[in-house]
UniProtKB/TrEMBL annotation:
PANTHER family: C2 DOMAIN-CONTAINING PROTEIN, INGRESSION PROTEIN FIC1. Residues 162-185 have a biased composition (Basic and acidic residues). It comes from the Eukaryota. It comes from Escallonia rubra. This is C2 domain-containing protein.
Length: 185
């Protein structure tokens, strides 16, 4: 059996907390938006995670949903890797498919530097935008980075032959990391 390449990285822990003041995107103002978020890291567009749909929050949905992404160590210092969060309103039989609300983008290096400065998890509130338009609301999230470790390259860059496998591999490769907030090395 072929030995798999290992890469240096960390787990990036993200908790989407809530969004506030989102602009209504449906056809009918009287219908409440059913909002969900799709999250990815620009270095790894194959791994997109989705929150459960908030059916009651409308323009102010609460998520409190935790996600974990593998991230390369070199990405923590570069200004080319970003956290990408898209917000959508789930469609219905009357309104058609999901509607795009807007997105938020934050540099991973900025989050990593802020965590180091504050010696712990970082809570951020960012603007939700649609193209070059002004703010369409705001999004609150908290995040922290796990300890440095090694994991299989297939966990970072999955192929079409291994769909879904990358998340389990990253978890298994770094399962020695303690639950909760580990101490830095």
């Amino acid at each position: 059996m072929e030995e798999e390449n290992m890469v240096e990285g960390r787990r990036f822990h993200l908790t989407l907390v809530e969004a506030r003041g989102l602009e209504h995107v449906g056809c009918f103002e009287f219908l409440k938006m059913k909002v969900y978020a799709k999250v990815s890291i620009s270095d790894n567009p194959c791994q997109v995670m989705r929150t459960p749909t908030n059916r009651n929050g409308g323009a102010n949905p609460t998520f409190t949903h935790h996600m974990t992404f593998p991230i390369l160590e070199e990405s923590l210092q570069s200004r080319r890797t970003r956290l990408h969060i898209e917000l959508h309103s789930e469609g219905s039989a009357w309104t058609g498919g999901s509607k795009y609300i807007g997105e938020a983008n934050v540099w991973i290096s900025e989050l990593f530097d802020a965590e180091n400065e504050h010696d712990g998890s970082e809570t951020k509130i960012v603007q939700v935008r649609k193209g070059a338009k002004s703010s369409r609301g705001e999004l609150e999230f908290s995040c922290w980075f796990g300890v440095k470790g090694s994991f299989p390259s297939s966990a970072m860059y999955p192929t079409k032959e291994t769909p879904g496998r990358h998340s389990r591999l990253a978890e298994k490769a770094m399962e020695g990391e303690a639950e909760g907030r580990p101490k830095r090395q």
